[in-house]
Amino acid sequence: MAARPRELTPDRSARHLFGAKMRAHRERADMSLERLKDVVMVSTSHLSRIETADAMPPPDLAKRLDAAFGTDGIFEELYGLARREIHPDQFRRRMELEAQARLIEEYAGQIVPGLVQTEGYARALFEMFDPKAAPEEIEELVTARMSRQTLLSADFPPDISLILDEAVLRRTFGGPTVMHAQLSRLVDLTLTPTSVVQVLPFEHGGHALVGGTLTLMTLDNGAHVAYEESISTGTLLEDLAAVSARRRAYDLLRACALSPSDTATFIRSLMEVLPDERHT
């Protein structure tokens, strides 16, 4: 018995409407996903995910759909809207994509990325962000942050590449002991079979990503996505042109950052000058 098609929600966003219209026109033409695949040259699995709004349509798909269904530019208009909108459930979607990623590359300008935070550092961050939060709320957030890191110890973990602004390492959270443990973890990750950490020193000056945090993800199906984050908001980018522009900015920073070996030496030098809380 064939699986029942997933119910669509075209009212949620332009991306959802794109997928719903695609299914409606496909069914009107009595065309299976397998048959449509041969017409538009996109895999069956990818077409299925586009219909359910779990994937962004490729840039050239809209024109091919208009040609296949004779829809006079409707799909091109919908794609123009979808590529510019903010994903309605972007952080949840980011977590789903992170779990599928084979390569995660991140630039952080102010704080250590969540994937490599220690428990103490994460707790200090959450307490700083919301000093009125109840202790149990903080612990719930810390537990969620730590559980997110389990993907790094999976049987087939993703590769991670981190570029950390020097400010990340010099701005302490939770006191010297907490910061020492966090820096120690970063040293351990500077160059392993699955991780690379590099520091971008202050002397590099300004750059295109200075205003926030950028995460680039290469998924197991070869797709590329980006996620930009500010103080309390984030934007998921799946449009090829937008992701390519962020990729270029990231690559320029990587070329200017310290090598992993020099990064480890630099971080150790900061650990040595942290005050000893036992004697303060």
Automatic annotation (TrEMBL):
InterPro entries: Cro/C1-type_HTH (IPR001387), DUF5753 (IPR043917), Lambda_DNA-bd_dom_sf (IPR010982). Residues 21-76 form the HTH cro/C1-type domain. This is Helix-turn-helix transcriptional regulator. Transmembrane segments: none annotated. Pfam families: DUF5753 (PF19054), HTH_31 (PF13560). GO terms for molecular function: DNA binding.
